[in-house]
Specification:
By secondary structure, the chain is of the alpha/beta class. It has helices at 21-38, 54-62, 67-84, 98-114, 169-178, 186-197, 224-229, 231-234, 243-248, 261-274, 306-313, 315-325, 336-366, 378-382, 386-395, 399-420, 422-428, 431-452, 457-466, 477-480; strands at residues 6-9, 13-14, 43-50, 91-94, 117-127, 132-134, 154-163, 183-184, 203-204, 206-207, 221-222, 253-257, 283-286, 289-291, 294-295, 332-333. The strands form four sheets. Strands 1, 2, 3, 4, 8, 12 and 13 form a seven-stranded parallel beta sheet that branches. A four-stranded antiparallel beta sheet has the order 6-5-7-9. The structure holds 5'-O-[(L-methionyl)-sulphamoyl]adenosine.
Length: 510
């Protein structure tokens, strides 16, 4: 079995509070992939919320709500995050939905039947914040060893269900060595191999002293991590092996933050294999957005409100900033000044002005109509492989390189204006030369609408509409990015407003 469609997932987010920009970051990257792959064929973007477990329950109780009411109240805010940043999900799964919980119980029964789940006794140190058991030897001064956490741990002693993870160790090691690209970036891959080499314990997958989870037959609730991981297949209706599942599993790309790599690249494939299913084709563990060197997180209290940020800069500026600022996979530090520089520089000066100047000149010299040209353009040859190059970079999640390549065209068009000086051609009455440069500029904008669409959908639509083209830039680049595609005579409609008005004031404190 191999999936025919493109399936990309985000982690499902803990709904213990409001979203922050770290959550938007993952979802935006997933959306760029989905939008690009939709130009090629069926693509499915899945996201959602992780609603069970002690952490969510504690947050709900602290706020004075029962957990279900609390999550019901918060979900719209998480969906609003996706709307704000134009994250075009195809499904949003909540782990409290019946479609999920019933399949999770079915998985549990199935794994019990195969012997991969068995009853045992668990005693150990538990960190509520990370929802993780730790070996005594791993604790740091009696506290959680996760450097991002460091909280006190509790001693638990319970009869619990276990998943026989240890028996998959050899298969996992073999899988890693046969598929060196299946976990990226390489640092994450190496860390996971080292973890596997140092040994693997079975995983405790039930909790008896907790109510807020999926009830298991015979008592207790399911461990929140197994419950959560299963969302990736319950959302596809795997239990009925329906069309969605057949088209989209195994997942093409599962995006995660690097702190949750162990669950996704050791536990998750083993669970899938126990169910007789394939592991995802790629798990990509991206870096963290940091503030003054520390991971931005609710528990650190150093979060930036994504809604305020979008209000101030616009969603496309933030999307662009995230995808251009650092290599995907590396950490990068957030600062509003950096956003402002990208906004005024790359977006305002380079792209926004290009669009404005082009359409203004076309309006002035040709009544806004795209001229008819007969001679071939040198740009046709120079950028013949641009669509293929940008597509290939997006396909391997090299978003920054992809945008660098798109900006080669932006720069070439700006240089063309400076070199050919359409205003002088007009003064001299050199109509053929003026038509040629105006055509190239407009055609270049049509290309840019296609190429920027996955990254900045609103901007791409804006360029498209100003070119007088119907709908949105859609369809395979191999077909559409052929120089000369813009029909002569097309009536453009220059917008009054700039695409990226300059932001001069110092950033407010958000
Ligand atoms: N609920 C689990 C995931 C279960 S998936 C089966 C969880 N949720 S989370 O809300 O804590 O955060 C999940 C993801 O948000 C991270 O893996 C990462 O993708 C993203 N980020 C959260 N903070 C981030 C940064 N500061 N920087 C970049 N991404 C961040 O873990």
């Amino acid at each position: 079995m191999t999936s025919s469609g493109f399936f990309v997932t985000t982690p499902i987010y803990y709904i213990s509070g409001d979203p922050h920009i770290g959550h938007a970051y993952t979802s935006i990257a997933a959306d760029v992939l989905a939008r690009y792959h939709r130009t090629l064929g069926p693509a499915f973007l899945l996201t959602g919320t992780d609603e069970h477990g002690q952490k969510v329950e504690a947050a709900a109780r602290e706020a004075g709500f029962d957990p279900q009411t609390w999550t019901d109240r918060l979900v719209p805010k998480w969906q609003a995050l996706d709307r704000t940043f134009e994250v075009s999900y195809d499904d949003f799964i909540r782990t409290t939905e019946a479609r999920h919980t019933t399949q999770v119980v079915a998985v549990f029964e199935r794994l019990k039947a195969t012997g991969d789940v068995y009853l045992g006794k668990y005693e150990g140190w538990y960190c509520t914040n990370d929802e993780t058991f730790w070996l005594e030897s791993k604790l740091v001064d009696g506290h959680c060893p996760n450097p991002e956490c460091g909280r006190a741990v509790q001693w638990l002693s319970e009869d619990n269900w276990f998943f026989a993870l240890s028996k998959f160790r050899e298969r996992l090691l073999a899988y890693y060595s046969d598929n060196p690209g299946w976990v990226r970036p390489e640092r994450a891959y190496n860390e996971m191999v080292a973890t596997l080499e140092s040994g693997l314990d079975d995983l405790c997958i039930s909790r008896v002293n907790l109510d807020w989870g999926i009830p298991l037959p015979g008592g207790g609730v399911m461990y929140v991590w197994l419950d959560a991981l299963l969302n990736y297949i319950t959302a596809l209706d795997f239990a009925t092996n329906g069309e969605r599942f057949q088209t989209f599993w195994p997942a093409s790309v599962q995006l995660i933050g690097k702190e949750i790599a162990r669950f996704h690249t050791i536990v998750w494939p083993a669970v899938l294999w126990a169910l007789g299913l394939e592991a995802p084709k790629l798990v990509f563990a991206h870096g963290w957005i940091t503030l003054e060197g520390e991971k931005m997180s609710k528990s650190k209290g150093n979060i930036v409100d994504p809604f305020a940020l979008a209000d101030r800069f616009g969603s496309d500026t933030i999307r662009y900033f995230f995808m251009r600022e650092a290599r995907f996979g590396s950490d990068f530090s957030f600062g509003e000044e950096k956003v402002r520089l990208r906004r005024n520089g790359d977006l305002g000066n380079d792209l926004g002005n290009l669009v404005k100047r082009t359409l203004a000149m076309l309006a002035r010299y040709r009544g806004g109509r795209v001229p008819d040209v007969s001679a071939d353009s040198d740009l046709a040859v120079r950028f013949a492989d641009l669509g293929a190059r940008v597509g290939a970079q997006i396909a391997v999640l090299a978003f920054r390189d992809a945008l660098d390549a798109v900006w080669e065209l932006v720069t070439a068009l700006n240089v063309r204006v400076e070199e050919r000086k359409p205003w002088e051609l007009s003064k001299r009455g050199d109509d053929a030369a003026l038509d040629a440069v105006l055509y190239d500029l407009c055609e270049g904008l049509r290309w840019l609408a296609h190429l920027t669409f996955p990254f900045m959908p609103a901007t791409a639509r804006g360029i498209w509409a100003q070119l007088g083209l119907p709908g949105e830039p859609q369809g395979p680049w191999a077909e559409h990015l052929v120089w000369g595609g813009l029909a002569a005579g097309t009536q453009t409609v220059a917008a009054e407003a700039a695409l990226f008005p300059r932001l001069d004031e110092p950033a407010e404190v958000l």
